[in-house]
Each structure stands twice: as C-alpha cells, then as structure tokens.
Amino acid sequence: MITANNIELTLKKLEMTSEDLKSLIDLQDKIIAGFKPDEQHFILHRTIDDFSNALKSDYMYVFGLYHKDRLVSQSILSLPNDHNKRDLPEFANQYKNSELAIYKAVLVDPEYRGHGLMKKMLKIREQVAMEHGRKLAITQIAADNPASWVNAIQYGMQIAKVGFDPEDDAKVIYLQKQLNTQQQKFIPQSAFRLSLGSDVHKNIPALFNKMIKLSEDGYMGVTWDKSNNQIIWYKPENMLSYQLKNKRMVSQGYTF
Question: Which helix (H) or strand (E) holds 120?
Fold first, then answer.
C-alpha cells in the first residue's frame, strides 16, 4: 500500500491479461484526450501490440498504481540483458545493457495529478533497478514537455544529452542517474544557471538551443533551483576539481 496526499494506492505489476491490457489502453486514451492537439506528441502513443509486448517481455516491468479498482498511473521499466536490442541505443552506449535501467514515460490520470505519482513511480523503478544490480538509470523526454523533465531532475536525474531522436527527429532530452551512489547537492562556482522564464512552454525553442550548446560544451543539467526557476548546469570535470579542493581544505581544518 502506498499513500499519496492521503490517498491510499495499491501497487501492482501488470500481467498479460485482457483486463490489465484494457486498463492501460483506457488510461493512455484518457490522457491523450486531455491534451490539446499540438500537445498530444508529449507521450508516445502505444498500440495494443506495444503494451502486449511489454507485458509479455521477460525483461520489462509494467507497474500500475490503483486507487481502489481504478488504474490511475502506469510506468514501464526496462532491464535489458546484454543480448537484447535495447531502447535508446544512441545514449549511454559506453555501458553494457545489463548495467542499465531504462525508464519509459510515466502516465498519470489527469484527475490524480498533483499527488506526486510521477515521483512515486520513479522511486519504485529505481528500487527494482537497484535490486537487479543496475548501475545507471536513463530516460528520454520530449523537450517541450518541461513538466516531466523538471520533475525527473527534482528526483535526482541529470540532463546528460540534448538533441534529436534518431527515429523521428523530435527534440528530446536524455537524462540519467547513477544508482547506488549519492548525488552531490552542492553547486560549484563554475555552475551555469539557465532560467526557464515565466512561460516555459513559450520559451522552449530558445531554451532547447541553449541546452544543446551547453550539452555540446560538456555541461550537465544537474538540479532545479525552484526559488529562481533555473536549471543548474556544470561540467563534471569541474565538479571533480571542486570536490578534491574541498576535501583538501577540510583535511587542513577548514569548515564550510
């Protein structure tokens, strides 16, 4: 049992049954119907075959959160083996398949938004991935769906690559999170702050171009400064130098 804003939810691993399959399709259709026509590309429109293949797969987990008997959120976790053809082969290809956990989009019933269900699903998938010894969690999110990628950053994922999906040339953001390690919370002085502005959807074209440039220059988007509505970016090598410097200063008796 999972509690979210005083709502009692039941977690279930969905199976290849007509009931579970219908629940997945119905939830997706309801979410798509709630989008404006120019927003419907925010989520991948999965077919019955897509869901069936995920439910039957020996390395994919389809999770559902239920309020009473109603499916209100679903997500898919892929834990590919080295011999499998995996999703997102263009990203994190320095890792073996068996080291990766691939997060698919989280779908939440519009009537249940605001209850933190996306973060609940991120936590559930992370726990399962760690239980299977995975080292890195990765995902891909449409660039013009900032609610999703800001939410992922809040949970600890970091923007590692910005570009275009090789399959359909859509603008996408690739995020990752090291598992079994504690992410750093402090921000080095070399950090770059990218303001999302008062109307982030309107600003997406300009933000996307800036994020591509930052990514190409070796920066990673590591956290969201909520009070200033900014994404904080820094170079990993600068972070390492910052950590080593602080470690030396602490060993010499300095405090921060």
Answer: helix 117-131
